[in-house]
Amino acid sequence: MVPILAEDLKTANAVLAHYSIPKDKPKSYPSIRTSTRLAKEGLGYKIFAQVYNAIGGILPKDQLKKYPVAELKKGDLVAVEMAAKKCSTSGETAEHGSYDLKAVLLLRKGTAADEAGVENATTGPVKNAFSSSFYEKLNSAV
Fold this sequence. Notes:
Layout: H1 6-19, E1 31-35, E2 40-41, E3 44-45, E4 51-53, E5 65-66, E6 77-88, E7 96-108, H2 112-122, H3 132-141
């Protein structure tokens, strides 16, 4: 047996990331549609409340504290729990998946830099999914 070193884990992550990138660029990008059934409340709808604070770690939802949905901000790192409803490719130019939103788990509060990064990544047309520096870092790690 050989102990696993931090460098071994970095190399393994770099190899996984490298082989996770498709060789051919896709002709179209899949779209994801999410929805959830909201209960009516008066003239409007009840706010989605299945948001949990998982900053300390992901646990069963009954062991996590609820987190106010209004406090989620752009740049926060979240995991979403969804149930697949349907996938469709027939007669369409792109694959479409529909999912029912079950829960949102807050993993880390975003910083101002995170918010700026999200703003930059989501404004204007996206030309490349990964920057050239991503590939440079990937090649140098292996």
